[in-house]
Amino acid sequence: MFESFPLWPQRASTIAGQVDALYVFLVLLSLFMTAAIFTMILIFAIRYRRRPGVQAEQIEGSHKLEITWSIVPMGVFMVIFFWSAIIFFKQRTPPDGAGTVYVVAKQWMWKLQHEEGQREINQLHIPVGKDIKLIMTSQDVIHSFYVPAFRIKQDVLPGRYTTTWFHATKAGTYHLFCAEYCGTQHSGMIGQVVVMEPAEYQAWLSGGGVTQSLAQTGETMFQQLGCATCHRTDGQGRGPNLAGLYGSKVTLVDGRTLTADENYIRESILVPGVKIVSGFQPVMPVFQGLVTEEQLNSLIAYVKSLNPPPSGTAGTPSGVPAGAKLGEGQVQ
Amino acid sequence: MATAAIAPEREDYLNKEYGIRSWLLTVDHKRIALLYLISITLFFFIGGFFALLIRLELLTPAGDLVQADTYNKLFTMHGQVMVFFFLIPSIPAVLGNFLVPIMIGAKDLAFPRINLLSWYLYIAGGALMLYAILSGGVDTGWTFYTPLSTSFSNTHVVTAGLGIFINGFSSILTGLNFVVTVHRMRAPGMTWSRLPLFIWAHYATSIVMLLGTPVIAVTLVLVVLERTLHLGIFDPRLGGDPLLFQHLFWFYSHPAVYIMILPSMGVVSEVMACFTRKRIFGYTFVAMSSIAIAVFGFLVWAHHMFVAGMSMYAALVFSILSYLVAVPSAIKVFNWTATMFKGSISFDTPMLYALGFVGLFTIGGLTGLFLAALGLDVHVTDTYFVVAHFHYVMVGGAVMGYMAGMHFWWPKISGRMYPDSWGRLAALIVFVGFNLTFFPQFVLGYMGMPRRYWDYSHSPEFQVLNVLSTAGATILAVGYLLPMVYFLWSMRYGKPAPANPWGASGLEWMTQSPPTTFNFDETPQVTWEAYDYENIPAPVPEEAFGD
Fold first, then answer.
1. Closest CA to B30 of B514, B521, B406
2. How far apart are the first and last CA of chain A?
3. Is B285 in contact with A58 (Cβ distance < 8 A)?
4. Residues A112, A118, A119, CA angle at the centre, nearest 5°?
5. Which residue of A has its CA nearest to B313?
6. What's the Cα-to-Cα distance from B371 to each of A111, A152, B306, B360, rounded to whole Å?
7. Does the CB of A175 have a partner CB in chain B at under 8 Å?
8. pLDDT tens column, A230-283
9. In order of start, what are the domains of chain B with their CATH numbers?
10. How many degrees, rounded to 5, is the angle at CA A235 between CA A233 and CA A239?
11. Does the A214-305 domain belong in CATH 1.10.533.10?
């Protein structure tokens, strides 16, 4: 234990080095400021210790000094702000064409669904060198998906999706922690992220006897739940045609327009009456409580797979169209 | 000898009346301050006991000392007791109650009966909290995050929530009392620009108490309503929004940090001035920075929520505002340091605590810059880095300031001197113990250890730092027990205190120790500026202490 006394976790993602660089800068800045203040106090304490016959010199203050030590820190703070904001922007913006893994958190485990159909618990296998976007939700309380080696963390909320992404740079096994206190076994809600070389990862994918991709599972559900009756692809159904829906602009009956992202599709399945698409009647039944989070993920994966694969990123299952990002589904 | 003139039968607020009724029905702000002192000390030791159990559990990676549920209750109740029943009332309700009227030359606070009511509300809230603890405890984390607290926890959330709700009114009424007192009760000549910085700090604190506390009160009521009547407010299954809770909670709980730290800053200004024999460098800037902190402090709450699922653009705004609020804090540190320049500095116990405050608050403030940095916060939020940071501010800052103040004004409060050498030793022990406890936690946090983990057997590399932290906590405990012992000792065996043992400026030192019930024999006329140390001779320490 004493042989290795690390000061930071392993760096295993593209963002990790950038976060560490800012950290090191702030550590040096703090060391400098602490040393400066402590040295001043020490020098004054010795130099101006009370001696008989020596009076303190009354000094009112100095506007020049006050302005200096307000403006200079403010300038330094702004450098930190912009530097950290740039990193944050990258952390929060998944690149186009990232592979998707769906995460469902519950007290006290992580359930993960790959687009290819693999399902895992408390373990996430991913290839090195690929952008991976996580679409996460919780079945119960708030959790937080934290991989220290990737320097990413994102709270996972019930009733909505949050996302994060990473690009692993080094094969290995890394800690996955729940970082938001979630009840009795909070500290047991841990897992591993296994980053594999691409060939190894392909071997892992083809093992396990998975026959259906997530979208195919979703398609089966889509038929079983009777969705296909109204959501017809020929445009003659009582519900909107879902082909090309994901990432597109939708106009509602009240005239608002929004971008159809995962949160929108989720809400439209669970409580369809909230946002009715212009030109349609509120006839769809409520599915709240009838589908599990995992089933919902497969349905969403299916809806997304109805989009034509965007040119240039062929080969990515259910490619994400440019401009469609999660969390921007607010009414515009 | 200054002490020779003091006759034993002299009347003061302590010996004017005896008996339990004379205390429980008192409207004397000084007696109420002592009632608070006794009650918050009780809660401090309850909260401290929980902290020691937490540190003992973390000595080994495995969860082996207590059960997971017990551990969760320990950190929850440690936080609730320390924040709501010790830190928030600490300086305002004890030192503020005692000193605000005397420092401005008043006989009492503006509303003496409301002041007593505040204490009873505190006791009622505290009793409910104790009941929640004794009947099984609470396990939601002191933050009460929903929907865990409203729909999932099987513990005494409602009792604890109502306890904190009632206690909140104590805070609101104390704030109201201080604001009115400072506006209306100042002695002739005590202009705003002559107010001691302790008063400015309490004025700023009172504004935060008045404006912030109602929000946490409403929020806790909403938690209770959702939990008992299943009104859908925060739980998405009932149609609520869990992030709404976090916004409401931090809208109070971030400014609450300033309720804890601002009064400490006021104490440090008084102590620094006295033991450097100087007017505080940049009086106006120090006074105005208190107000600036109180105002900006209301605009930064969501920096606790950068990874909570909030919009990226909102995060940018809250990050930049957080840097803005760091500036007035920096101004204060620079001014205190500059105050020492060309002073005539002595190192009595209060000064050692005040210097300790400046050192620890500097580290606490600087590490705040890490957490306000968006891209870095993503990695360190909800880890031990945050735990270390806020303990540096709230314990290294607020509690060090409280200790500085207690040692500075104890002769005034009790009429007795404590042994200064023991005081200095305790200050040193606290400083060493504190740093050993909390500094390793910065490293632990960056290494990725999440907070509120009962078991870390998956990461044995965290153990060394945890052992250091636990060792520090035991030293810290000794440092906090020592003053308790010698303060009690001094009440019986300490030398009687003269009116002004430190040769300090300020009206509180111009009346006898302890003061009479109405503080002054006649209303003082203030004709001098604050910190008039040019005209006050420094004391000869041997006379005061005799050691």
1. B514
2. 55
3. no
4. 35
5. A89
6. 30, 14, 10, 17
7. yes
8. 998 887 888 898 988 999 999 999 999 999 999 999 999 999 999 999 889 989
9. 37-542 (1.20.210.10)
10. 90
11. no
